[in-house]
């Protein structure tokens, strides 16, 4: 069932700060997700990489890529001024000239027009926990637009929050997520119970912006659009790395 959500909760500076400072690094499986992304990028032949980071948030994917691909250039696209401000704060001076920031909403049909006129073909398109804020019919449209933006041989990599197949899986995900974030906070001297983690998340209405789709459904969309070598390259409960290439 499709529904509309208000993703603009992520324009709230306080919500952004709580997530980027208190929970982002505590999400379980982060290292494995990033390793999977970088392994997929190795299979793109063109260098230096031309990258589009869709829903870039505070830039964690871009920073990870630039650490291993120092000659890459990135268009960082997001709809939240608060997130883009965080990105700029965390971007090293050495990398500033390699990143072009674009504010826009990928739920609007013409969002591609806001990209720089000379930067509309990419070797890699990455996204981290962003597209799940769009209704399912919009997700599929976005995937088609991203396919058109890819150069032949390019890859789309989506690190995403996906729907659990069962209520048990969803309950286990909430349990694991809250425990990991609480442990992350405790290691930094901030004692918090797992139950309080979820209370904070619920109070900020972040989850109200989620429209989760099963990994299998999204993989089918990618294949229908024309992506090849489509797979869920990593998955743990409701976290997944979905990817597909554009045939040469």
Structure notes:
With 248 residues, this protein is α/β, with parallel strands linked by helices. The protein has a single domain, classed as Vaccinia Virus protein VP39 (Rossmann fold). It is 39% helix and 21% strand. The protein contains eight helices and seven strands. It has helices spanning 13-22, 30-41, 60-68, 81-90, 136-149, 167-187, 194-203, 215-225, and strands spanning 50-54, 73-78, 99-103, 122-128, 150-161, 228-236, 239-245. A seven-stranded mixed β-sheet has the order 3-2-1-4-5-7-6, with helices on both faces. Helix 4 (81-90) links the parallel strand 2 and strand 3 (99-103). It is globular. 38% of the residues are buried. The mean pLDDT is 89.
Quickly list its features:
globular; 248 residues; Rossmann fold; 8 helices; alpha/beta; 21% strand; single chain
* Main sheet characteristics: 7 strands, mixed
The third-level CATH topology is Rossmann fold
Q: Which regions are unreliable across 5 or more consecutive residues at pLDDT < 50?
A: none
Overall number of strands: 7
- The averaged pLDDT comes out at 89
**Mind telling me the CATH class?**
Alpha Beta
| Helix percentage | 25-40%
Number of helices: 8
CATH architecture: 3-Layer(aba) Sandwich
Question: How much β-strand is present in the residues?
Answer: 15-25%
Backbone shape: globular
Q: How many structural domains?
A: 1
Radius of gyration: 17 Å
What topology, given as strand order, has the largest sheet?
A: 3-2-1-4-5-7-6
Q: Would you list the SSEs in sequence order as H and E?
A: HHEHEHEEHEHHHEE
Structural class, judged by helices and strands? alpha/beta
């Amino acid at each position: 069932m499709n529904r509309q959500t208000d993703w603009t909760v992520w324009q709230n500076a306080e919500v952004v700060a709580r997530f980027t400072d208190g929970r982002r690094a505590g999400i379980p499986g982060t290292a494995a997700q990033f390793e999977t992304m970088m392994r997929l990028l190795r299979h793109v032949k063109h260098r230096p990489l031309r990258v589009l980071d869709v829903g870039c948030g505070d830039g964690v994917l871009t920073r990870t890529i630039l650490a291993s691909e120092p000659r890459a250039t990135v268009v960082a696209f997001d709809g939240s001024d608060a997130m883009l401000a965080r990105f700029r704060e965390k971007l090293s001076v050495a990398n500033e000239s390699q990143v072009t920031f674009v504010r826009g909403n990928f739920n609007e049909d013409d969002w591609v027009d806001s990209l720089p006129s000379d930067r509309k073909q990419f070797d890699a398109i990455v996204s981290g926990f962003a597209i799940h804020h769009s209704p399912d019919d919009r997700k599929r449209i976005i995937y088609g637009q991203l396919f058109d933006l890819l150069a032949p041989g390019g890859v789309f990599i989506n690190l995403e929050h996906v729907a659990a197949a069962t209520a048990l899986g969803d309950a286990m995900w909430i349990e694991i997520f809250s425990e990991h974030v609480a442990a992350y906070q405790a290691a930094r001297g901030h004692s918090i119970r797992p139950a309080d983690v979820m209370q904070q998340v619920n109070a900020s209405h972040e989850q109200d912006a989620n429209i989760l789709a099963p990994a299998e459904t999204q993989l089918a969309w990618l294949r229908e659009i024309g992506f090849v070598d489509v797979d869920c390259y990593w998955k743990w409960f409701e976290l997944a790395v979905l990817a597909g290439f554009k045939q040469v």
